[in-house]
């Protein structure tokens, strides 16, 4: 699975990786299966049976699921090679496309094989039988609890994969290609009207799919069903309430900051910074914060991304531009945050040991990018590295405070494009898109009225006039890939990062000191304890936070973080 | 499929890629299938039907075969990445191993699917029917001739894949692993006796497999059957006769050269040559001779090899060492020769458009490495490139003639190791191994007597005393991988390269001038016409040569090339 860093793409064209299944990684040495189908009824003798020992169906199921994992990972290898190493000639690309199509077809066949569904049901029945015979045995509980969660996840995944009739799946596949082309063309010529029919088809198709996926459960709203694909267990009402709090706090606050005359100097960002020096700085820093290069790689590509070829082989790419140094570094740190999550997942090679959600994933990248990488202590630590790389002939003679101010300065003039927005403005860019998506899915907003609504919100949120649709509602790829319900995860991740930062500092009061000394391991280990190692064991981001830090997602941490920080920076 | 350059591995440990199936490459736009199962009987109207239009079985067969091609290529991507880019940590390797195992299992299932056999038979019947109804139509002939060859190749391949019972296949797989380990250990401790039982098992298993593969056809000797795997259509008797001629000519000739006092100075080879400069020289040269970097890549790895990830994506690796410049360049040119063959195969994505054999492949690499890359005009062309790269402060101030002499100088002192041997001694290294393999398979030589036989031959051929088995019969990996019958292809390739060189110069009398001017394209195009584009259309290396240059493989070209060249170099 690839996670793409939209924030740090210099170009507006970028791709979303498939988000439908997180493929976990490591192989796992299972205990020797005794192959008995019945539990030996004994009160005294050997250790209690695991489900894998008790249930032949479960054992067979796990084997099939792991095969699918390995197939998906093989596809990732081909995808990574295509993005980073392969020549871009047409014949070369065509051949690679055929290879990927064959792998995808086989993986799909295996994932939708009715036999898989039967095994899930049989294993579930076997689990119930085993649980009822030894309900109080503590040794068995962890294995059975885990098995229960595995079966839940796989049941849900199987149902989703198989509820789409072939014609609808074919229409979706074809639409993804045609809508993408239409979007590219519309952007090039600033012609929303030419894209509108495809866009309507994208929304309609996504709704049809959501309708099938929710099945008989009409309690789940359509948009909630769509959101669940990217952020499980966080329905529309929950997100709506959180986003309203953020919107209410930030619109006036941003207006206030915008009016300040105390903008920090951006001079330390400007100049000429050799790409090799930037690469070297980035590599040094991502390894220092904890990216494990012995189980991964650092490369360069057109758009930064993270991709797991297995959880023991997590690769990140960066992109650098000579005219500035911060974006390249920020992108690297962001991807490293994603990668450290993947690198510290469990090793079952099952969905259980994959990232909980896109939002949780984004909390990891933004934790490092912002709460570490935009902090004062970080620049006290990093300054010598930056000065050594860029400071020949005193060309980079800035204090840590000056650098801190510059990287956090907000560019209010150029605030049209989400992926280029700073952390203060970014939330409203996301809320704008969330509001529009929600309204279109609810039938409250017509697709043809998207540009007007977009521009109205940009004015309301930022006092900005959108000059054309290319720089307005045509800037993002997501809807043309039918990724409707994806946008909110960026803000949920931002909010979760701030909450984690708060609680991490509670557990590690020496947080700032650790960063200043370049001792990042305790921080990364805290995140592994609280987030990474749990994979998909929790039902939602909220459940994870309640269990691990004692409180569900609360917007105040995010709002306080931004208001305190920018009040200080802008001296208001 | 990877072709590994044994000659240029600096270390003795190296790997043989799977040789059992050549996976061809390019996708191919088939004409719209009319899906009719019967030929429309008409004398006047539309163009005659192709087999694909006439036979639903053939169409389905091609689709299945291409799927297998794409799967095999996907495995190559994973293998290439593993060899060149992937971290070497244990967990990383384990995970990649599982992915490869899944792909291999699926490819094997598809290749041995009984349905495939039925489709081949039905398509063959449909072909006969179609041929009988329009025997004289020239337009149809090419398509039908091609289809006939495709079906022949696939029938043979299917029969070979399916004649091995599961237990034997499992034993072979397990033996490949255990024999390899035993070989590595035996080499480390110079203990042939510890390896002998595994080695015997390798020969016995290979013989069992050959027995099954030849089926009822007892006319084919077992060793001929094994040879056919690597060099189709060249039985033991043919190879025996050719090799005897070479042995008879070279043993005395080498003795004469060895006695000469006019050894060329090797000084131009020695010194310190920065790796980056060597990389740059190699890249420049391989691209100049015709390696198409827009449909491939040039990397560095532990052992040089060529691997096709599709025929539009052919990758070569090189290896450099600071203390000398020639081996790294020779390795690159050698791999580029292999690669240009792959890059100019046809685009059906079927076995038809894969390399004819290992021997023909080697003729391509050696043509460029020796007949171009060891020639006087080549050094007249290359000298400025070498001098610019290595010649700072007059450190590389040699004439083209001095460089020519040095690269062709023979090291008679250090002539124990095949992969390090020069072109003059190399043939006898191959013949030594051929003689032993043949004798063991025939039951004339016991595995335990291999060291004695080896050492006796080394004395007879080279007047060399082998100090230990590590530098003697334990030096090559092949037998421990059950690649018995592989060695002869190196010498067949050498001989074919010399014959091609002779005929190329006949068709292009300006051959030397072209090289001296760096105009390699006409030469590469001649090879494409004579060899590359034919894929597996010919039944053997001999048939290809008869059809394309008018004469089957004739040892005189090779013998004359060596005797004339080295008589001149050593002034005898």
Overview of this structure, please?
Two copies of one chain form a homodimer. Chain A has 572 residues and is mainly alpha-helical. Chain A is built from 21 helices and four strands. A four-stranded mixed beta sheet of chain A has the order 1-3-4-2. In chain A, β3 and β4 form a beta hairpin. The longest helix of chain A is centred in the first third of the chain and has 29 residues, at 56-84. The model of chain A is unreliable at 1-45 (pLDDT under 50). At the A-B interface, α2 and α3 of A face α2 and α3 of B. Chains A, B: Pfam families: Peptidase_M32.
Can you summarize this structure?
Chains A, B: This is Carboxypeptidase. The structure is a homodimer of 572-residue chains. The first copy, chain A, is mainly alpha-helical and 572 residues long.
Give the tags.
4 strands, 21 helices, homodimer, four-stranded mixed β-sheet
Q: Report strand order across the widest sheet of chain A.
A: 1-3-4-2
Order of helices and strands of chain A: EHHHHHHHHHHEEEHHHHHHHHHHH
Mean pLDDT over all positions of chain A: 90
Main β-sheet description of chain A: 4 strands, mixed
The radius of gyration of chain A is 24 Å
Briefly note the structural class of the backbone of chain A. Answer: mainly alpha
> Low-confidence parts of chain A lasting 5 or more residues at pLDDT below 50?
1-45
Quaternary structure of the protein: homodimer
Query: What count of helical segments of chain A does DSSP give?
Result: 21
Number of beta-strand segments of chain A: 4
